[in-house]
Structure formats: structure tokens, C-alpha cells
Amino acid sequence: MSTTRRTVLAGTGASLAALALPTPFLTLAHADDGTALLRARWHTLLTGGAGLDTADPRIAAAVARIDRAAVSAAKGLDPTRTDGLWPDLTSTSVSNHVTTSFKRLSTIATAWAVSGTAQYGDAALADLLGRGVDWMLENRYGPGHDRFDNDWDWEIGCALALNDTAVLLYDALGADRLTRITDAVRHYTPDPNLWRVDRQIATGANRVWICTVVAVGAVLRGDGSDLARVRDALSDVSGGGANSVLAYQDSGSGTGEGFYSDGSFLQHYKHPYNGGYGKELLGNLSRLLNLLAGTDWDVTDPDVANVRQWVTDGFEPLIARGDMQAGVCGREVARSSKQGHVAAQTVIEAVLRLLPGLTGVDADRFAAMVKQWITEDTYRDFLDVTDLASLVAAQELLASDTKPRGDLVTHRQFPRMDKAMHHRPSFTLGISAYSSRVYNYESIQNENLHGWHLSDGMVLLYDDDLGHYSEDYWPTVDPLRLAGTTVVAERPADAAGQRTTSTTDWAGGAALPGTTLGAYGMELRAYGSPLSAWKSWFCLDDVIVHVGSGISADAGPVETIIENRKLTNAAAELTVDGTRAPSDAGWSATYEGVRSVHLAGTGGYVFPRPTALRALREQRTATWRDINIKYGTDTPVTRPYLTLWQDHGSAPSGAGYCWLQLPGASAERTARAVLAPPVSVVAASAAVHAVRRASDGLLAANFWAAGRAGELGADGPASVLVRPRGKEFEVAVSDPTQLRGQVVLDLGLPGYSVRRADPGVAAVRRGARTLITVDTAGLHGASVSLTLSRTSSRS
Predict the structure, then answer these.
(1) How many CA atoms does the CB half-sphere of 565 hold within 13 Å?
(2) 248 included as an active-site residue
(3) Is 165 in contact with 173 (CB distance < 8 Å)?
(4) Alpha-carbon distance values, 442 to 278, 323, 332, 448 (Å)
(5) Fewest CB within a 10 Å sphere: which of 153, 155, 589, 602?
(6) Distance (Å, rounded) from C-alpha 730 to C-alpha 699?
(7) What is the side-by-side order of every strand in the sheet holding 458-462?
(8) For 174, left (φ over 0), alpha (ψ -120 to 50), or beta?
(9) pLDDT of 655-711, one tens digit each?
(10) Given 277, 462, 473, 752, which residue is catalytic?
């Protein structure tokens, strides 16, 4: 029997009772209630509902935040002006001025509607807001007004804010004004399936936004037929499901924008975007599902069950103690308003809305996950920043007997968007690559102007410094020296090369299921230069091995960046081969024959062969406007950095690198790793990168072409891990090019046969070897595995 949201909701009451969750997110309505209860439900989402306990310090603080936001938004509001409601929002060429005007009205209206604020129920304020809405309808928005600049503002941004204002002020606006509001919104956004300006199908997050606009407008008008259109648009019933928001995009029958079964989310065709458009899709869809649940417009498409998998596969592995992997946030990394764990907040709020509709194991798992997310983020307190409805739900969850999930310990790869996440108890490592299938970075509308190398092998280390990628990291970091990247150290023009795919297909890796063991790599072909390289990351529990070979270019200088850390302590101790380096700002040095480096608070770096390194301490000053003309301010910010890199010189040919990264390691552990390396390099050529772990003999390899590494051979491109376990060997393999129909491995293991294998995997004995054949067609880079046993007679 398929699971639908209607069948899931059948157990809602029991789930709520078991979890002691509140009901501000879900009060069942029925068709004969009309749309009045749906309007009340949306009002509750915006305000937290009636009966808030303002004696609760957290509730009182949230109400005070709403109060302050309204006071700030109301400054300068004057409906008698002729050029704009606010003196700083007068443009008739920048559409964001129109959206921001509506957002400020909505912010003030929220305070008017929330009990406990100074503005609550104020008649004069309601009149002022009504006149403000009138001014916008007469001068900027609605029939008779031509749109300009960005269509998103007209069809989504303005409409969402104006609809919310209408719900909040519903009883004070009057019938005539409400009609003009809904007519204006319908003028720009009449169809939940389409962008109106060019009649193109809306996809991904844009489709859910548009559906939300149409749904709330329908609630305001009491229009059940439009609510039915919204329900159907989520599944794209009229379009045969090819552009369904709820369905996975793996089939390739739609535009490709949306979620994939490996957890990847793409928007704007080929941009990895879980932390941007993906989180917005989840957030708005959770509101829509909540709005329609239990009514005649309930979403009954069986694919609604996929939403739970989005959370566990597409968000949970990408969140590191409250921070979202920056490589999947698109151009939002260049917005100061989106730093500081803001993306994860949106995800937490969405899952809190989904919780009342879950039962049994799902309810328990999601509640434990949300409790972990909220409690482990000691940098940004969710309860201090979230909306009132989410605050009520979160507080009751935190007070329940549900135990937090615990640290996430896993290695996850996302072949559909060329990203990987490596979670250990004390750190998380994110790797950002790209290929012929995925764009490198997004810079549109003058945002993210310096994102040139965000996918050139960028490595993000999330550790106990929870604010590392916040507090002005992205404007102040040297964008030519992002950790993990290999680059030509010359500054491109702003936004140069964005929305570009690679000319090569090799990006991805293999992972052993149920472990934190993974091999990952990419064939780098740099945009705008002839720089090429093969780059690998072998994530072996608490050790990450970085290997590079074939680094070639006809110009330079070319560098590989080992680390570029924003320091919480500007004088954090750096030791090179046990000798402490100066801590003065502006210090730089070139070291020869380095075997180890340790940076206090970050960890150690061990070089199997003596390596020449360069180091730099600097105070970097920049403005957000440097990377974002649309939203950035001109206020200078300064942050301290420590950068380590390997200089390959000008026009290198066949250069390489190798180091072991030990996140969180002490100086003593780093020194021991020089004397007794936990991992050794087996091969670092143009054909294969391979390493072996000392403790158990695990072999991990990335084959760029047919070749051999120790006892393992491959007939072409492949990523492979072979782990001995007693009398057995566990093998994981993938085709990172996603083009091969079959991968054949030659493993020097005599007398072994298959004990367990995934579909499409077979092994046969050939004398002193075992030949493993893997059908990789249609796997899209996913790993498959098998177990070989010496004692088993099966083959």
C-alpha cells in the first residue's frame, strides 16, 4: 500500500501525544469549513497563534524581536510621499525596492497581529498600513503597472509579502481593498504551474513559491478551485508529472531541476543548491502541506513521501553543527544576511512543520534529529532567532523525552552534484568539485562576484570553531586561495567563468557503506586557462589524504592551497617541523623540506616527502559589496587569516602534491604521524592515485585510466576501496565519469568468492586473481559493493 500524506495524517494525534508536540502547525480542517480555517492556519504560521505564554522568557524575547523589527521597518514610512513609501526605496528600475517595501509592510503587520507587542491591534497603525498598501497598488504593483528588472520580485517576492500582510490584517482591510490586493497578485501570478511573463514551466523552488502565492491568494478569496490547482501543480498532473516537485528528477523526464534520489538538489539547471533554493523549497512546501493537510485540497500524491527522504538524504548530511555546506548554497554565500547558520535554520523550521504529520519510526527519528540540530549549534541559538510558531514547537520538543540523535558519523557522496561530506565525531569535511554535468558557481544579478574557485576542489573543514564560515568569511577570504584548490594565482574579472561546466567527466568517488571510508576525486580542467590536474581526497576516518598529480599549465604561478583559515585567535600557534613560527600579522615565510605543520585549534598536516611550503599571516579587509553589488554594504570588515600553500611555479608540467590532514590533531599526534604514517601512498601518477592504511591494509584508489596499484587493477576510470576484515574483503566501486557501462577490476586475491554482492556485481576466480565485474550503467556514479570470503564456496 502506498503512503500518502492523508494516510500519514491518520496517526497525527497519536504522534503528537507521544512527542508532546504542540499543534500550532496543524489544526485539521474539512471542506465544509470553507477556507476560513485555512486562513486561520496561515495566520498561526505567521504569528504563533492565540494563547502565547508571554510570561515565558523565550516567548517574550521573540515578541520583543518582532516589536523591534516593526519599529525599525516603520521608520520613514510615509504614504503621502510621491516617490515611494520610504525614502530609501524609491527606484522604478530596481524591482527589489518594490519587494522590500512589501516586506516592511508585512513586518509591521506581524507586530500588529501578535499579542504582546506595542503595536498589537493598534487602529491607527492598521490605518497606516492600509494606506501603505493602497500607495503600492496605486503606484507600483498591479494591473496597469509594468514590471521591471527581476521577474522573481513581481511574481514571487512581492506577492508572498503582500499575501501575508492581507492575512494578518484581514479583518481591518475591508472587502474592497482585499479585492484589489488579490487582483493585483493574480495579475502577476495567476497560474501555479507557470512563470507568467514568458509562460515557461516553473520548476523546483520557484514552482513551490508560485504555488504558495496562488494558494494563499485562493484562501483570501475563498477560491477552492485554485486550491485544487495548487495541489495538482505540486504533482504536475496537467503536465503528466514530468515537472512534479515531489518526484525525483533521476528519470530525466523533466527539466532536471529539483531533488535526486542521492540527496542532490539542482536549480537554475545545473547548480548544486540544497542550501539555497533547496532549503526554500522545503520550507515553503512544509507550509503548503501544513495549510492543505486534512482538507479536500490535501496533497495525496504518493511521491509526497519523498519529502522525508529529502530531509535525511539531502539536508542532514550537508549540515555540520548548524552550518550548511557552503558549496551547495550557490550565490547565497555572498549575502551577509545568509551567513551564521541561517540556511540550517530554514531547514529546522521546515522539519518542525513536518513533524506533526509523521508517525512511528519516522516521527521518532525526525524529532531526535531536530533536537540534535538545535542543541549542538552553540554558535547561533535557534530559539533566539526563529519565528514564534517554530519557537513554540521547538520548545515543546526540547522539553519532551525525545533524546537527541547524537553526532552524525558518516561519509556521504552526492554524484548528481559532485559534492562529498565526511562526518566524524569531532569534525566534518566538505569537498566541492564539478564536472561536465554540474556548473562551477553561480554569479547573477551582481552577486557572488568572486566565486571563481568554489568548485575547483574546495575543502571546507567544520570543527569546534562553529563560526568559521560566518563572521564575514566570504568577503574577506582570499578567493584565489580557497583551501584544497589548485589554481593559477591570477585574479580573473568579477564573475568571470560562472555557470560553466568542465570539459571532463571524472568527478566523484566510492564509499564503503556503513563506514566513514571514502575515496573522492576530480579531473580538474580550469576555466579560462590551460591548467589541468588530477586531484584526490581519501577520507579514511580521522585522516584525509590529499593527492595531486599531472599539474600542468603554460602560465603561472600555479598554487595548491593546503589551508586558509580565518582565525578566532589571530596569534594562534603555528609550528613547522616542531618549531614555532612568528605570530605577527603580515608575517610570511618560505620553508624547504617540510614534514609536518600544526596549527593550534585546527589540526595537523603531514607530508610523506619533504615539501617546500609557503606561509602567510595577514589581516584581510574587504566589504560585502566587493562580492555582492546587489545586497552588499560598503562597511569595511577585517579578519585575521593563516594561509599555507605549495607553489608549483610558473608553467609547471607534471607537478604534484601529497599531504595527510589530521583535523583536530594535537601537535604531539602530528609529530607521531611523521614517524609512523597512518597512511602511505601507493601510486600518484597520471593513471591512478592510491593509498594504503597501515592499521588494516585498506587500499583506496582513483583510476583516471586503466592501470594498477598494488594488488588492484582496473580496466579504465573507476574509484575503488578494498578493506580486509578477517577472512573477508569488502570492496566498493563506482564509475565517477558516469559514462561507462561496465567496470572490471583485477584483484590479486586467490581463492576468494562472493559472499554478498549488490545487484550487477559479479566475481570469478582466475588463478591467483579475482576478477570483479560491475554493471555501472544507469548508476549515475553511485557506489556498489560486495564482500569476498576465503571460506565461502559460493561464487
Answers:
(1) 26
(2) no
(3) no
(4) 15, 20, 9, 7
(5) 589
(6) 11
(7) 410-414, 419-424, 427-432, 458-462
(8) left
(9) 999 999 999 999 999 999 999 999 999 999 999 999 999 999 999 999 999 999 999
(10) 277
